[in-house]
UniProtKB/TrEMBL annotation:
It is found in: Cell membrane. Residues 24-323 form the ABC transmembrane type-1 domain. Signal peptide: none annotated. Its main location: membrane. This is ABC transporter ATP-binding protein.
Amino acid sequence: MNFSTSYLLKRSFDQARPHWLYIAGIFICNFFTVPITLMKPLALKILIDSGFGAKPVPNFITFFFPSNYEFSFASVIGLSISLVIFVALIDNIYIVVIWLLNTYTGERLVRDFRLHIFNHIQQLSLAYHDRKGTAESVYKIQYDAYAIRTLIIENLSPILSSFITLTGMIVVMLNINWHFAIIACSVIPPMAILIRFSSKKLKKEWQKVKENESNAMSVIQEVLTSLRVVKAFGQENGESGRFMSKTDMAMKGQLKVAWIDASFYFCIGMTYAIGTALFIFLGAKYVYSGEMTLGELTMVMTYLGQIYGPLDTISRNLNEVQSSLVSLGRVYSLLDEEKEVKEIANPVNFIRANGLFEFHNVSFHYKKETSILNDLSFKIYPGDRVGIIGSTGAGKSTLISLITRFYDPTYGQILVDGVNIKEYKLSDYRKQFSIVLQEPVLFSTTIGENIAYGLPNASKAEITEAAKMANAHNFIINYPDGYDTLTGERGMNLSGGERQRISIARAFIKNAPILILDEPTSSLDVKNESQIMEAMERLVKGRTTFLITHRLDMLNSCNIILHLEKGCLEEIIINNETDTIARIKATFLSSI
Ligand SMILES: Nc1ncnc2c1ncn2[C@@H]1O[C@H](COP(=O)(O)OP(=O)(O)OP(=O)(O)O)[C@@H](O)[C@H]1O
């Protein structure tokens, strides 16, 4: 998405609004740079003009002395030294204060922005994540979000303070000699043209760099999450090559950015040099003709440095702003991404489902051109155990995703307890489900906390009870740390069977009325399988259950079987007929 600079700035300030007090503090603190900067050359001027020369000490200094005080050469030296130390003290106190304030405000700004993006990403539908992948979102939260701090604290704040200092310096210079002021300002128009020209180019290049960096990150993420497969196939070098090609592109982009920056600074540097040369020429002329003292020339030359200083800060920061704006544009396009599964304006609260499901002519596609589910109509009664069978790619998991409202049907309606599921409050609706997947998902925390994921305030007794129901308690207490054992990333410190039993315990503790079992035993060995089957038998009791499985013995316990093929409901088998098992076998075997 291509946002204009003014839009990006406005939106960033809106985003930073809750922190306005601190940001205002930073901007106000920046005003102090003007008197501090103006005071810096004063000691030297007094030393030259009033110590070595015959000029009286400036009035605003004599004000602090008795009216009849005579300034000797030694006292002028003492005064200059004291002034240098005083100014340095104020300057350094100011630096410490502004540093701490910048860090505090900047970090709060970034933390809140990241949280805002993270919340939004979690709200986005699976369809978005399927399309974009996770690495891009991670890059945006981790790197692009930081640009809000860079823009407001590190770019705009110095630009503003430099602008104020610059104005102060130009006013002072006008008072000393307007010729000097004009020469000092003559560098501004060429500088403005250079900034405009380079920032346009930089914006384009930064866009490419950030995309390529994010692509490189997606390779890292993909490889690290599938390291076992990469190692098993001996593809480490291949993956390094893939990473290299992506980082190479990012590096080339960075070099282009560096080239544009370097050319820009070269031109700016030459512009300053021409300005300084004119200054020296004019200054020498005035001192020679006696129109100006040497002290005044020294001060004017120092001020020139202090005019070019802020000008340099402004030009550098205006260029750097482009990188921040590109990052923020990327984040805002993510924040503008609409949720595909939306909650209606006044959703219905849903306390506890009975489990009556009605599908009315439901169709679904991920991409317009490929229909995945076609015109499904069926009814499931509370407490039914529903087996879902069909060949690979038939649409079984997609059907489950519609039931849990991870996606909305493209056509048709799904009713639960007589109400269209789109009318329920989304969080209430999702609370009605417990899910046990083929590959159990654990978080890198303790076993106890993983079990309590479905009921965050669960007591120890509740966690232990759920673990017992899931046939998990015995293996858990055999670990030295018991329920406090760390599971490792994605539960990798545990065996597949242990992970699955923890996920069943999690379903027990949640005690949701509807249960989704997606091939829950397919990756288990025989010993684990019998214990898990037993635990699952306890779990499904009294709940409406949807079970995807290729196992005939599991289907045996289902009282209704939906047979899907190519997204169509081939058959609904009611499991109360004498020849049901034989029919399931026949159907099932023909479909795999
Ligand atoms: N996120 C997605 N985006 C696009 N197409 C998808 C997506 N997820 C699944 N599909 C496609 O939808 C079809 C049905 O997939 P689904 O996972 O529902 O099948 P399945 O019956 O569960 O298969 P399996 O038994 O192999 O798990 C497949 O052709 C698959 O390629």
